[in-house]
Amino acid sequence: MAGWLVRRLVQAGFVMLAMSAIVFVGLHAIGNPVDILISPDADQAERARAIAALGLDKPLWEQYFFFLRGAVQGDLGRSFVFNEPALKLILGRMPATLELAVTAVIMSVLVGLPLGLFAGLYPNSIAGRTVMAGSIMGFSLPGFWVGLMLIMVFAVTLGWLPSSGRGTTAELFGVQWSFLTRDGLRHLLMPALNLSLFNISLVLRLARAGVRETMPLDYIRFARAKGLSPRRVVFVHVLRNILIPVVTVVGLELGSTIAFSVVTESVFAWPGMGKLIIDSINVLDRPVIVAYLMIVVALFVTINLVVDLLYTVLDPRVRLGGRA
Amino acid sequence: MSDVPTLELRDLNTVFDTRAGVLRAVDGVTLSVGRGEVLGLVGESGSGKSVTGFSIIGLIDPPGRIASGRIRFQGRELVGLAEPELRRLRGRHIAMIFQDPMMTLNPVLRIDTQMMETIQAHERVSGAEARSRSRDALGQVGIPSPDERLSAYPHQFSGGMRQRVAIAIALLHNPALIVADEPTTALDVTIQAQILAVVQKLASERGTSLLWITHDLSVVAGLADRVAVMYAGRIVESGAVDAVLDNPMHHYTRGLIGSVPSRNRRGHKLLQIPGMTPSPLDRPAGCAFRTRCAAADAACETEPALTRPEPGRELRCFHPAHGAVAA
Ligand SMILES: Nc1ncnc2c1ncn2[C@@H]1O[C@H](COP(=O)(O)OP(=O)(O)OP(=O)(O)O)[C@@H](O)[C@H]1O
Ligand code: SF4
Ligand SMILES: [Mg+2]
């Protein structure tokens, strides 16, 4: 178990190293941030000073080396634009994104799982077929378009929900959260729904497929032959089994949901990391971009670890590290 | 009262509505199992044995349905009974054991969960009592240190041990009837013998009737009181085990006996029944066995009626054979 954990962390370290190198080289190839950051009519001396101040006068490998040396000490560089530590900048925006992504994932389970169970138990009913047809839309409609439509309908036409921002927030553990206030929740609802649409469809289909696969198995027949109520058969015997793939996929999707929140945050002007990263890419603010990607990788690794641990809880046949 | 059989099937028809047509899986089956009696139901794969078993316990799912016929359990009609009523019988008065012990227990639930829920589905008892009864039941089927094993998961048991757990679950409520659908087929010969011994002992101690489904005549010979031979959805011959095995009259029964390997015939070539079981969608009219029967003639193109060639025996054949199957 301990060996397994260490191995996973070392792997994660290598991924982060490789990724930071790729980003360094890639951004260097795309363009020079100096051209964007410094006003075109600045003179040569001013230009040289700014370049030196940002450390961009050194060769790329040396810049990378400085970055690595800082990184092991927890310093991911200062933003060219805000002149603040990149890490602090991102961590400041992270709660908003996490709140949005976690709400979206919870919504996808709360909506997708019951619908999927229903569609699996009654595959030929009209309601079951409708649910399945709806899930195709959830997969194929582009997120930004759905977001705009939601705003058109619920914010502009009906005026039920606000279309942008986090609304009133309240503090918990020294961080501001929207979900703690009524107004914040109203602001959270539409972007979270927008972000969860894909995952709702995914969970729904997984659950439906799981039910269809599990119902004819011998152990379900045996459970029924014992005289159990249909409710116990479905909610204990079937659900426990389909929870294994659902939890795995939903857990792993949390990472991509965080990554995809970029689009939703832009549409709903949600002040999270996604919006920050779009702005940073526009001005080639390399420290922020690198730091963001490092944090996203770290999140992915952590999420994967937690999912693996959950998996062993849900499926007694699985043992970590390959030893029974 | 005591002469009411535990189970009585009358002209049972269970069909599946498939795209290719109506599949008659069970085609007019009549049989009965007396109190404490063991009836062996034998036949080739696809002859409709399992469908008969599931019909009895009320677990035929669409596209399947019981098209007609009667199922009487202790004199009570089960066909057409509402689902909640059936559920009260299932697991309590009629239990079932399945073929593949690797598949009959839910892999993600502990043994105690799967046993206690069976008790609590039918009786209002405390968790502690359900647990102690479960432990006793595990002990009775010969599972060592049942107290510890209760908290284990199915994958921590061998196939034979899992089948013992399934038997323990089936016996929890002392059912009047157990439908055992080839419960030893998937096991090694030695394990098979142990399981048979356990079931035989517990069933006879408690007066439980058994409908023992198998395609293995040697199992039937040692276990059953009577045997019914099934072919293409019909019972073609039935009677006391010794009478049928010593003097099989239906040509299909003779073929089955001829294909059983036995010690005193070692070295002899095993007889195979020529040909294949006809597709249930496309059965020949008349005797369904006539495409494979050496004694078939024009008469066999009409349905053979049920006859009683000897007391206690029933047969559907125009040209019954006599005497033991030659070695
Ligand atoms: N759910 C189903 N849908 C369609 N046909 C079915 C279904 N279940 C069983 N059948 C058909 O019913 C017939 C009888 O099957 P059954 O399972 O009772 O055979 P069996 O005698 O138990 O065979 P085996 O020894 O292989 O278990 C077969 O032709 C089978 O194809
Ligand atoms: S009825 Fe005819 S075909 Fe059928 S078993 Fe008897 S002899 Fe053979
Ligand atoms: Mg079968």
Q: What is the spatial order of strands in the main beta sheet of chain A?
A: 1-2
Biggest interface and residues each: A-B, 24 and 32 residues
Computed Rg of chain B: 20 Å
Q: What low-confidence regions of chain B span 5 or more consecutive residues with pLDDT below 50?
A: none
Helix content of chain A: over 70%
**What characteristic shape of chain A results from the CA principal axes?**
globular
- Helix content range of the residues of chain B, please? 25-40%
SSE-based structural type of chain B: alpha/beta
Low-pLDDT runs of chain A? none
Q: In what range is the share of β-strand residues of chain B?
A: 15-25%
Q: Round the mean pLDDT of chain A to the nearest integer and report it.
A: 84
Largest sheet of chain A: 2 strands, antiparallel
Order of secondary-structure elements of chain A: HHHHHHHEEHHHHH
* Secondary structure: number of strands of chain B: 11
- What fraction of residues of chain A sit in β-strands? under 5%
SS summary, helix count of chain A:
12
Globally, the shape of chain B reads: globular
Average pLDDT across residues of chain B? 89
Tell me how many strands of chain A there are.
2
* Major beta sheet, strand line-up of chain B: 6-7-8-3-9-10-11
Largest sheet of chain B: 7 strands, mixed
